[in-house]
Amino acid sequence: MAGSPNSNLRGFNHAVQTLLKQPSQFLPHLTIPTFTHLPEDLGPHLVKNCQTQSDNLNSKPTTPQRIPKIRALVLDKDNTLCPPKTTTFPPQILTKLSHLRTSPTSPFNLTTNPYAILIVSNRAGSHPTYDTEVHSLETQLSHLRIPVFRLPEGTEKKPFCGDEVVKWFKERGVVESPNEIAVVGDRLGTDVIMAGMMGSWSVWCKEGVFEVGEEGKKGRNVLEKMEVWIERFLRERKGCVAPVPKGWEE
Q: Quick one: pLDDT at residue 14?
C-alpha cells in the first residue's frame, strides 16, 4: 500500500493540471443530490445528461448512438456513503444499498451479479492505518456482500488507482470494458477525474451524504466550495460538456 496514510498531494496537483489543460474532464456525466437518488438503470440517465448539455450548446441536437450498460459501481465512502472520517451509514443510505443488491430488476443484484459493487476510498483500504474502518464497513455490509477495495502495494490513491479497480472487476467477470463501470462520489477532483482516467462514467453526489436541510449535514469545506463553483463556471460560463469515456464512440 501507499506509504503515507493521509498524503494525496499528487492527486491535488493532478486535479489542478486537469482543470488547466482539460477542464471538461472535471465535469460529471450525471449529477444527483445524494447517493439515494442514484437511478437503478443508470445508462439512459448518463447519455441523456450528456445529450442535454450538448443540445444546450448546439442548435442541432445530438443523439447518442447507444446507451451504456452499467454492470459495476465504484462507490466512494466519505461524504457519499458515510459522514466524513466515519463508518456510520445513515439509514437511507443502507436502504438504498439494500435495494440495489436485492431488487430483482437491479443490474447490481447480489444473486445475479455478486461482485457488482466495490467501495473505493482514500481512507478505508488505502493504508493499514484504516484497517479497522475496512472491518467495520464490511461487517455492516456483509449481508449485502459489498467489499472494500484494498489498494495494492505500490499503488497510489484515487484518482491514480483506476487501472487496478478495473482489473478487480475484470478478474471477477463483472465487466469486459471500463465503460461498463460508473464511479459514484462527492469529489470532482478525485472521483470524477478517476472515472475519466479509467474510461468509465461518473456520477457526482453534489450534496454529499445528506440532503439540503437534513439533520447532520455540515457546511462545505473550502475545497468542496471551490469544486461546486468550478463545476458551475465550466458548465454555465465556459460551455464545457463532460466527455464520454475513451473509446465509447468507436
A: 86
